[in-house]
Amino acid sequence: MRRLPKLALLSAAAMVAGGTMPAAGSEPAKPGNNRIYSCVDANGKRVTADRPIRECIAREQLILNKDGSVHSRLPPSLTAEERAEYEARERKLAEERNALAEAGRRDRNLLNRYPDEAAHQRSREAALDTVRLAIRASELRLRELAQERRPLTSEAEFYEGRQLPPKLKQALDANDAAADAQRDASRNQEAELVRVMRLYDAELARLRRLWAGAAPGSLGPLAVPGAGPVLAAQPSSSSGTR
Q1: Has residue 58 got a pLDDT over 90?
Q2: Comparing C-alpha atoms, which of 173, 136, 139, 6 is closest to residue 81?
Q3: Strand-strand pairing, 36-40 and 228-230
Q4: What tens digit of pLDDT does each residue of 144-159 get?
Q5: Is pTM beyond 0.70 here?
Q6: Could you give the CA distance from residue 163 to residue 104 in angstroms, rounded to a whole number?
Q7: At what angle do helices 117-158 and 166-211 cross, to 10 degrees?
């Protein structure tokens, strides 16, 4: 049998999907024949109609009698390659629908948590205070380490040009390591302070649009400068950062 070109197959599939052409081994949809078409679509949802179902063009469809019994089956109308392409498109559409639903959920959470700008500002200050406390603690610890080092440095000067006693050298090395670790922590805390401020700035810009009437989920991902999109707003508390 001569193989039909792909374009012809797609055209035939579209005619089946539109209810204008029956698949092989099935009867055409006729007004008043009391036949029901039924299938499970790409999202796992059962779909029924009085004609071939477009959403199930790549899936088997049951043709039911009026009493619900199976009259016949309508096989998939695509080749294996075409079905793979179709299902890939269906998956992409499903992902887009899920992303839109998640964006709406995220925006509704923001609105519930922050009914006005004052509530958002209180949350911002609480989050920043937590980071600022950590920064002050790091600064205090660095000063303590500097004080602890002074007598060690004075003692080391006595051994100038000679090998330090193991105990003194160990104490100096431990002080250096602790100070380096604390300076790293301070740099991380400063970066966290900037991150929190940027997050709250981005949230506030978004909230102002939502308060003005933008539909939840219509604004796309929450983009934070330097951090990329934030897909979901995280819960916050007055005792910690997000």
Answers
A1: no
A2: 6
A3: unpaired
A4: 999 999 999 999 999 9
A5: no
A6: 68
A7: 170
Q: Give the gyration radius of the chain's Cα atoms.
A: 34
Nearby residues of 148 by Cβ (< 8 Å), 6 or more positions away: 175
pLDDT mean over 181-199? 96
**Cβ–Cβ < 8 Å for 56, 28:** no
Q: Which residues pair with 49 in a beta bridge?
A: 37
More confident position, 94 or 181: 181
Domain count, the chain: 2
Tell me, yes or no, whether 100 lies in a domain.
no
Q: 24 in a domain, yes or no? A: yes
Distances (CA, A) of 106 to 66, 77, 98, 200, 206: 44, 39, 12, 15, 11
The percent of residues in the chain predicted with pLDDT above 70, rounded, is 79
Q: Are residues 31 and 126 in the same domain?
A: no
Range of the domain at 140: 115-230
